[in-house]
């Protein structure tokens, strides 16, 4: 089934700044789904899932948060935090005229989705969370991203060199996920340093008490053998939330290379979240 796709943008006004954010819209209708990428990755990583969900009748939007993809990339660490990204999702919903949406994402995108549910619960119909980064991921996250922060701060030429090597490669001639990797490597050193610094020293996710208060239905996808996104975090989160459900991926690559099973589960979850809400509305 073919669905319409188009790129849009909106602006956020801050203290002395005006930042542009870009998104892609798939399909139409009032059953909204917002998908958020992993840290430093482009929104295009969710294109296959977005197309699948839109083909099932959902209205899907993929967003590049500030510092990601084709959105603006200010070099100010104060511009980046999970709460700030959550506010950007709410601003997107306001821009689209969507009162509610199923909010979901991968890694950082999952944490931002939780932030929206904790701070603006009336805007969240459900949560589609892959690889949340919580208590059990702290040490691995520091080990993984500290070298990137140090390189961006003290050896910015390394980030620039990688960008110069990867940017000329035509994305249309490489496999899809190779293109996503190339887009992720297309970074500016000052912006990378700001993003990682802002996330390191800010709130990375709602507290356990806040997570236990989230009543929206949630589908949590966890992977084994992934120290940065430990399966223990996904299992803990699904157990904490009153309406949480855990799905174990067969491998960290399942949703990338053999997505049929997880795509179907995601579509059923999103459609179910909207159907149950419609039943509640009719009863009211």
Automatic annotation (TrEMBL):
Its EC number is 3.1.1.24. Keywords: Hydrolase. GO terms for molecular function: 3-oxoadipate enol-lactonase activity. Pfam families: Abhydrolase_1. Signal peptide: none annotated. Residues 32-140 form the AB hydrolase-1 domain. It is an enzyme of class 3 (hydrolase). One of its GO terms (cellular component) is membrane. This is 3-oxoadipate enol-lactonase 2. It comes from Nocardioides dokdonensis FR1436. The lineage of its organism: Bacteria, Bacillati, Actinomycetota, Actinomycetes, Propionibacteriales. The gene is catD_7.
């Amino acid at each position: 089934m073919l669905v319409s796709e188009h790129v849009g943008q909106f602006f956020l006004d801050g203290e002395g700044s005006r930042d542009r954010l870009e998104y892609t819209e798939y399909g139409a209708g009032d059953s909204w789904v917002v998908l958020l990428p992993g840290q430093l990755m482009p929104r295009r990583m969710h294109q296959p899932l977005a197309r699948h969900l839109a083909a099932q009748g959902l209205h899907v939007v993929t967003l590049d948060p500030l510092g990601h993809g084709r959105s603006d990339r200010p070099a100010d660490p104060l511009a980046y935090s999970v709460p700030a990204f959550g506010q950007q999702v709410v601003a997107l919903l306001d821009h689209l005229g969507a009162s509610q949406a199923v909010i979901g994402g991968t890694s950082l995108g999952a944490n931002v989705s939780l932030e929206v549910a904790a701070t603006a619960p009336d805007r969240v119909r459900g949560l589609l969370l892959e690889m949340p980064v919580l208590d059990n991921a702290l040490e691995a996250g520091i080990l993984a991203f500290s070298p990137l922060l140090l390189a961006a701060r003290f050896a910015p030429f390394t980030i620039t060199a990688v960008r110069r090597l990867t940017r000329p490669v035509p994305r249309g001639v490489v496999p899809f996920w190779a293109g996503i990797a190339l887009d992720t490597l297309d970074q500016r050193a000052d912006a990378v340093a700001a993003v990682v610094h802002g996330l390191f020293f800010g709130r990375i996710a709602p507290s356990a008490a806040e997570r236990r208060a989230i009543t929206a239905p949630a589908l949590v996808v966890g992977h084994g053998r992934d120290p940065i996104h430990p399966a223990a975090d996904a299992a803990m989160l699904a157990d904490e939330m009153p309406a949480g459900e855990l799905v174990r991926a067969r491998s960290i690559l399942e949703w990338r290379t053999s997505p049929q099973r997880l795509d179907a589960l995601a579509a059923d979850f999103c459609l179910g979240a909207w159907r149950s809400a419609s039943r509640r509305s009719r009863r009211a």
